[in-house]
Amino acid sequence: MLSRDGKKILRGVNLEVGDREIHSIIGANGAGKSTLAYTLMGLQGYEHEEGDIIFDGEDVAVLSITERARKGITLAWQEPARFEGLKVRDYLAIGARDNGGITEEEIKEALRKVDLKPEKYLDREVGEALSGGERKRIELASIITMKPKLAILDEPDSGIDVVSLKEIISLIRTFKENGSSVLVITHREEIAAASDKASLMCEGVILRSGDPIEISEFFKNRCIPCDSRVSPPKVV
Predict the structure, then answer these.
(1) Which of 96, 131, 148, 197 is the most exposed place for a label (fewest CB within 10 A)?
(2) Are 107 and 57 a contacting pair, CB within 8 Å?
(3) Any idea where the ABC transporter domain is (predicted)?
């Protein structure tokens, strides 16, 4: 459970992500999806108050964000950070330090996997005049270099320029192909439907989990924005 000013933001969330599974959390804006992602990552100000966060058989709820990252949990932000003066090659190398470092070829391969040409981007600055889509792809490439056990992707389609959903889904599957479990935060039913499993979230509660196509269709046809009603929809 997580609360703000006496109001419960997350309530009784029960969620399981399997090994090398793509699990999408779908819901409208304000449902608590990103809050859940930040809580799992251990961000300051998002420390949960009750319950366990079991990862690889260990309760990581008491661990800091740095300690969770060393355990293999990573988060790709919805809005990628800007690092003035830091070249892309150096930015991608930072995340791999705890895994014994990374070679130049591995950095290039990470860029190729997110459809960026190494020769064009390696020596550019992360804070340079890059588009939102370019920065988002570089952020995803940095997560790839970390080789996480669990990659949490917060709205991976956000800010990516004129790119098809097929390409976005392909980017998400790249993490699974690299051996990671993937938790995707999304409001796009197409992304949820392409997952291995999906959960519907509303007002800080997981309403249902299961077949991704059924969950995405339920969200598309029966859910309304969280800020337009007082209570969650009745689930039948």
Answers:
(1) 131
(2) no
(3) 2-228
Is pLDDT of 162 > 60? no
pLDDT at 97 over 50: yes
CB-based burial label for 169 (10 Å; 0-12, 13-18, 19+)? buried
170 or 79: which leads in pLDDT: 170
Which residue ranges make up each domain of the chain? 1-72+148-236, 82-147
> Residue 118: helix, strand or coil by DSSP?
helix
| CATH match of 1-72+148-236 with 3.40.50.300 | yes
Q: How many Cβ atoms sit within 10 Å of the Cβ of residue 132?
A: 13
pLDDT of residue 171: 86
Give me the torsion for CA of 142, 10, 169, 66, rounded to 10°. Answer: 10
Q: Rounded to an integer, what distance in angstroms lies between the CA atom of residue 152 and that of residue 130?
A: 23
The encoded tokens of residue 120 equal 């064009």
Structure token pair of residue 182: 């993937």
Residue 151, exposed/middle/buried by CB under 10 A (0-12, 13-18, 19+)?
buried
> 213 or 102, which is more confident?
213
Q: What is the pTM of this model?
A: 0.84
Residue 203's pLDDT band (cuts 50, 70, 90): confident
pLDDT of residue 99: 64
Average pLDDT over residues 69-96: 82
